[in-house]
Design brief:
This protein has about 400 residues and is α+β, with helices and mostly antiparallel strands. The chain contains ten helices and six strands; from the N terminus they run ααααααααααββββββ. α2 (about 50-115) runs antiparallel to α3, α2 runs antiparallel to α6 and α8 packs across α9. It is flat. It starts with 19 loop residues before the first helix and ends with a strand.
């Protein structure tokens, strides 16, 4: 600071001329400033490793959200296509029936015309494409036999039904087109997010990748610690439940033939049934460990998160919806403390990830692109990421 500078000796500077030392220093400063101005941006402008990690995680989550949208659009498209095919088949069938009804009317009209049993306007009525205007003419209806009247009624019924089905088919085709557009949009979104994530990771140096791996390892260790804590709490709660159940059984043992025993028996049977199904679902999920995560996949060689949970419970004889948004409503919501093996654990506010609980704070899930089906702590992305727990069967 100025207060610490030494006083310059008199006569060290002549107007317009510097001393050699000062001149050298000035030239050096100018050169450095010039180099700084022309240099590429400083490495300080690059995002920090933590920022890169957060960005990549966000992109993977966004990709998973888009994947669920893709799954929903794909399922909707398949259903809509099936409906359109059914409607088109129905329209074809009804058109054939309409043509047959028209032919029958034509036969009647031709016969009447040949025999003179009806005036020429009868033939005009019966052979017209839209004979509704003639239909209400009383004098014409009086000329018709009962069989002819039945044929006309059948014709109008078939015509009306066919027109209605054609309209339904047209509307369904429009909906199918919208579903296909949604499908393509969701697919493009997934691909874009994954591409952005890969690009960010590709720019990391070897040292940064090592540091990122270390950060991930610390997160896993913390997640494992929290899982162990949950396991301890659940074990204590289960022990207390068993003590209370034993006490209740002892109290009711003298009156086992009276009230209370039936309700307890029904509850035990229900718990046993769920446990049996859950064991089958978990056995299937364990057999998929090591298979790659692929967005939109439902097996048998690869899975996305909801594809895995759907397949696991299907192996247990229980059908649950395809996407997380629907799976979260396909059962009974329970607290995390009461989670049991087989329950589905949902993540994030937008419910875009799911795993199947195996007990002790652990789950089996298909994590994200580039990863494989594996066992992992339910706290893998922090406690706040857990949305809910659902018992599907």
């Amino acid at each position: 600071m100025a207060s610490h500078r030494k006083s310059r000796p008199a006569g060290t500077r002549v107007a317009g001329i510097r001393t050699p030392a000062l001149a050298t220093a000035a030239l050096t400063s100018v050169a450095l400033l010039s180099q700084t101005a022309n240099a590429s941006p400083s490495s300080d402008d690059r995002p920090s490793l933590e920022e890169v990690e957060k960005k990549v995680d966000d992109l993977y989550r966004q990709a998973e959200s888009a994947t669920e949208n893709y799954n929903a659009a794909k399922e909707k498209t398949a259903k809509q296509r099936k409906r359109v095919d059914t409607l088109l088949d129905d329209v074809a069938k009804r058109t054939q029936e309409l043509n047959e009804a028209r032919e029958e009317l034509g036969t009647f009209a031709a016969a009447q015309y040949r025999t003179g049993a009806a005036a020429p306007d009868t033939a005009t009525f019966l052979l017209a494409d839209t004979p509704q205007d003639y239909f209400d003419q009383t004098q014409l209806m009086d000329r018709m036999t009962g069989r002819q009247k039945e044929a006309v009624d059948d014709y109008f019924t078939q015509q009306s039904a066919t027109m209605k089905k054609r309209q339904e088919a047209t509307q369904s085709l429009e909906t199918l087109t919208e579903s296909q557009n949604d499908l393509q949009t969701a697919k493009s979104t997934v691909q874009t997010k994954l591409s952005d994530a890969r690009e960010l990771l590709s720019k990391l140096t070897a040292e940064e990748k090592a540091r990122l791996a270390a950060i991930e390892k610390r997160k896993q260790e913390e997640a494992a610690r929290k899982a162990a804590e949950l396991a301890r709490q659940q074990a204590e709660a289960e022990a207390e439940r068993q003590r209370q159940e034993a006490a209740q059984q002892q109290e009711s043992s003298e009156s086992a033939s009276d009230s209370g025993s039936s309700e307890s028996s029904d509850s035990s049977a229900s718990d046993s049934s769920y446990a049996t199904k859950a064991e089958k679902a978990l056995a299937f999920a364990r057999s998929q460990i090591g298979k790659p995560y692929v967005w939109g996949a439902t097996g048998p060689d690869s899975y996305d998160c909801s594809g895995l949970t759907q397949a696991a419970w299907k192996a247990a004889g229980v059908d649950i919806p395809r996407v997380t948004y629907d799976q979260v409503n396909a059962g009974t919501t329970v607290s995390l403390a009461n989670a049991r093996p087989g329950d589905l654990i949902f993540f994030y506010d937008d419910v875009t990830h799911v795993g199947i609980y195996i007990g002790n704070g652990m789950m089996i899930h298909a994590p994200k692109p580039g990863a494989y089906v594996r066992e992992e702590s339910i706290y893998y992305d922090g406690e706040s990421s857990i949305h809910s727990v659902v018992r599907p069967a």
